[in-house]
Amino acid sequence: MQIDFGDVLRERHRWALEHKEKGGLMMGCYSAMVPEELMWSCGVLPVQFLMSSGDYGESQAYLPPYVCDCSKSIFEEYVNGTYSYLDGLMVSHVCETIRSLAGILSVRRPDRFVHVFTAPAGNDAGARRYLKSELIGLGDKLQSLGAVPMSEERLEEAISVYNENRALISELYRVRGGNPGSVEPEEVLSAVLSAGIMPRPQHNQMLRGFLKTIHQGPEKTGTRIILSGLLFENEVAGRGNLFSIFRESNALVVWDDLATGMRYRFERIEDLEGGDPLDRLVESLMGPQPAPLRSPAEGKAGQLLQAARDYGGEGVIFLIPKYCDPILFNIPTLTQILKEHGLPALCLEVSGSLPEGQMRTRVEAFLEMISGSPFNV
Ligand code: SF4
């Protein structure tokens, strides 16, 4: 059976509506730093917002012009009915923009549930107690909307399903990193993005099938690159310009640290036997997080360097959404550390669809510069 995650992305609202017909709540989410396992255990399907480019007409009346396209896209599609199947939204406090957007949407759509989830910055016993009580309170709020009450057993099961998903995605990245010609970068990113919108048990089943269809074949040669930052869904599922340029320039994506890619699925929740699963969820949410706000740039640089060592990466391309402060703040530290270790980097500003002309020139020049100089420090 042909497994096409790109098709899942293109048809994501149809998938969602089909799920809605089966019953259960659906919650729009932004970023991996929301307790998806808890929601799933209460019978709520978390649906990650994907960023579509387009005419952000109505958002201009509500949002300042200097906010990212990501927040404009969420605003637009939330109020124009595209996400009519959602029962509310939950965002994690990864930046002030998304927190403010949640506030604006709660006024614009007062009929829908809105929750800003914030894991504490501290890491002590008091912070853990606080977060645990927040999660219990969240479970109660979901129950008042009609969700299933929280239970240890269901949460344990949800953690196990989500951990399997993380393991399968890690395996996909390991296979691709070993032979990047064996699977197209859009297919890998579509698989990860689909995880955020599909019921996870179903996604696990599709991923297991997808992994079996990847044939190693002879190793492809080309300039090995790593992507970091954030990429819009239309570049992945809508056959945008970036990956065409890579193919035409004989560049191979060996790994990514995209907020919509591996970074989203990186951290596994400890599934040690016994103990309260809620405590383990707390530990996971308090631990290293896949967002610049909660993970120091030094750690991120270490991951990029390690991926370059593991998979022969020759350079890193940072995809930086326009007006995205959290990613922008990290860039000087990241590029400096990579430079000190001899790993070249290119920074590209992205805003919806990537314009072809200037981007092609910059990407091709970068690839020409790094080609044949494998990173080996
Ligand atoms: S993290 Fe960046 S792209 Fe996402 S909402 Fe915040 S500013 Fe926008």
From TrEMBL:
Gene3D superfamilies, alphabetized: 1.20.1270.370, 3.40.50.11890, 3.40.50.11900
Keywords: Iron, Iron-sulfur, Metal-binding
Pfam family, one: HGD-D
Keyword Iron-sulfur: yes
One GO MF term attached to the UniProt entry: metal ion binding
Keyword Metal-binding: yes
Similarity section: Belongs to the FldB/FldC dehydratase alpha/beta subunit family.
PANTHER family: 2-HYDROXYGLUTARYL-COA DEHYDRATASE, D-COMPONENT-RELATED, SUBUNIT OF OXYGEN-SENSITIVE 2-HYDROXYISOCAPROYL-COA DEHYDRATASE
Name the UniProt record assigns to this protein: 2-hydroxyacyl-CoA dehydratase
Organism, as annotated: Candidatus Desulfacyla euxinica
Upper classification of the organism: Bacteria, Deltaproteobacteria, Candidatus Desulfacyla
